[in-house]
């Protein structure tokens, strides 16, 4: 595993070429920006039969990569249908609901656009001979498309790649005991710190090609969920699923990335048991199953903080790690203010950009991000 990016690069098409339903799904996802631009998406879906996007054969015979592709495509289409009109829709047609719920169950994830589908499984290399970097990544699926949307997501793809060594070192340090050599533990801490410094260097480039105004009005509105979303306070009915009882799910958010919970677990960074802690734990339900298991294994076995307290030789390296994590969380807070809070104060002709109080994950994001940052700082040794 390259950090939390998939071992095999995400697929862009299906091998089951004779399946008309998959061809229709591929076409719908590929044309999504144009369908949104021309207000044709909801009209086109209204003309489809219930089984036009059937994925039964894919679930039975498809590869994991193909199943992830279908999950991403259905997630983009569903969110575009729900959030792409003048008013949010709280009733999802069976033609989308049925295959989406089936694929989600196969992956053991909720039927909602998550970070995994938006970022981890949604990229390809422009040149397959070159490594992952911001000049060699493009997106498979888009909503409206454009530089700002692409840059926002590809920054996160490159962050996941840059954090891969920190994730490997986190796994190794979680296996350290009182018998482990101090020099080895120090080496692992330094690897984590250096990897996270690279992450922060990439994160700092967000403003280069993602404009706050465009993000707020053209990117952000599509990634909200229904839980704690005042615009979808009655939830979403997935026609023919869940006995037509409205469902409530969190929207796509960086809190669904496994990087920070892995680091918190490996380094013993504790969060007070309050609504924030509950929210962070809830985000794991939206992560791929193997990522959830990885985090649990790391945080269950790690005794890093104890080892650091026993050795003055490790304190500086440990604090360097926490400083890089604090810097990441501080930068996240800065962007939340620039890209969301400040934009919400301006009049605009294009729509509200979603809730100004709650983040896309349905949280009071400014207070949560401040708390993330401050709790990290407080736990330096």
Brief overview, please?
The chain is mainly α and 381 residues long.
Keywords, please?
two-stranded antiparallel sheet; Methane Monooxygenase Hydroxylase, Chain G, domain 1; 4 strands; mainly alpha; 381 residues
How would you characterize this protein structure?
The chain is mainly α and 381 residues long. The protein has 18 helices and 4 strands. The chain has a two-stranded parallel sheet with strand order 1-4. Helix 5 packs across helix 6 (94-107) and helix 17 packs antiparallel against helix 18 (365-378). The longest helix has 30 residues, at 315-344. The radius of gyration is 21 Å and the shape is globular.
Element layout with pairings:
Layout: H1 20-30, H2 32-37, H3 41-46, H4 56-61, H5 64-83, E1 91-92, H6 94-107, H7 115-120, E2 123-125, E3 137-139, H8 147-162, H9 164-173, H10 182-203, H11 206-209, H12 212-219, E4 237-238, H13 259-267, H14 275-282, H15 289-301, H16 304-309, H17 315-344, H18 365-378
Parallel strand pairs: 1-4
Antiparallel strand pairs: 2-3
Helix pairs in contact: 1-5, 5-6, 8-10, 9-10, 9-13, 10-17, 12-17, 13-15, 17-18
Number of strands: 4
Shape: globular
Order of helices and strands: HHHHHEHHEEHHHHHEHHHHHH
Largest sheet at a glance?
2 strands, parallel
CATH class identity of the domain at 141-240 and 252-378: Mainly Alpha
Structural class: mainly alpha
CATH architecture of the domain at 141-240 and 252-378: Up-down Bundle
Q: What is the helix content?
A: 40-55%
> Per CATH, what is the topology of the domain at 141-240 and 252-378?
Methane Monooxygenase Hydroxylase, Chain G, domain 1
Let me know the average pLDDT: 93
Number of helices: 18
Radius of gyration: 21 Å
Query: Whole-Å distance between the termini?
Result: 32 Å
Share of residues in strands: under 5%
Spatial strand order of the main sheet: 1-4
Low-pLDDT runs of 5+ residues are 349-359
